[in-house]
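Tutorial handout. Part one gives the primary structure; part two gives the three-dimensional structure as tokens.
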Amino acid sequence: MSAAAASVIRVSTSGSRARWLAWSSVALYVALAGTSFVLELRFVGRVSFIDTWSIAALFACGAIGALIISTHRTHPIGWMFCGAAVSFGLSFFAREYAIQALVVAPGTLPFGQAMAWLGFWADMPGIAVVALFLPLLFPNGHLPSPSWKPAAYFAGANVVLAVIFTMVAPATYADAGYPSIRNPIGLDQYAAVFDAIAAILDPLLLVLVVISAAALFDRLRRADADERQQLKWFAFAGALVLLSFVLQAGSRFAPPLLGAAELLAALAVTALPVAVGVAILRHRLYDIDLIINRTVVYVLLTAILAGVYTAVVALFQRTFVALSGQGSDLAIVMTLFVLATVFTPIKNTLQERVDRRIKPRSAPVIAHTASIDDLLMLSELHQRGVLTDDEFAAKKKQVLGI
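Part two.
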């Protein structure tokens, strides 16, 4: 095997591994959040509307991230969406597990204290991604300009410090109605010190959220026409994130604002994947609209054909029973013939309808059909001598659509 061929195989394998890991993170989130949902429904008797809504919205975040990684395996935005979903899912599960192990049925589950400790801080990376780093880096995974680097480093350092602080700070699950569950490694003797640190970190977090939102709107201001279309809905979602943090801060002084802050936070988490979805479907962001298009077509096609198969088999069997008094395997053969006949017309009709619904606006082809991965692969093959200059030029034009 030539070195070039081996390189192509490595690239393909790396892409497959990235896709597998991304979709596995979505499956992990579903398992964690689903288990948490069932536990709360079973032992509390109900799950709040906002909690249910948030679980669904975070699933959408993970799915959007996995779709991005399916095409761009190293894209930071895709991995951040997946990571945020896992972070929140782990937090949901840890808290519900701890409540079950320590309060509902003490002693029935192991590691209750460890899971309680995990529940205090597991969602903090996800919060940082949603509130700080997505606004800073969306849509290309880079800062709007080098002048924003100090803000990014400062935000990262503060997130690390906040996580470490939360790991050892004295705290309880009083907000969930279980004040008896305490941080097992909380340093209670330094409670006054931790209160003083929290008095600094909490306002600082709000300042960082404002800075991240400012970076997003600075990017929007600098963007060209195409990027502005991709950014405008995400900027609206970023504004919702900022407003939810402002209301959360205000609820310290006006507790009635807490309910509005939680509702707005759920709206903001929903708006983020929706905004990215609009940019993908309507403005060709990340060039994965074709994947979504084909997925919608084949899901609908499978459902319709399954319905046709069931109905036609039942019809033919009834006909045979009426004529001969018993069923016949010939009904299945005739049904398969019918499916083969209607497959193409149904598929073409569905494709036309989906194309009409999911149709990106016109734009220069080069702006949305160039695949970075394909270009890198072609360049490597050209450098290794597998492709001649003419072949490389022809293939590059094909990839770019020029």
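Part three, for discussion. The first strand starts at residue 172 and ends at 173. Strands lie at 172-173, 178-182.
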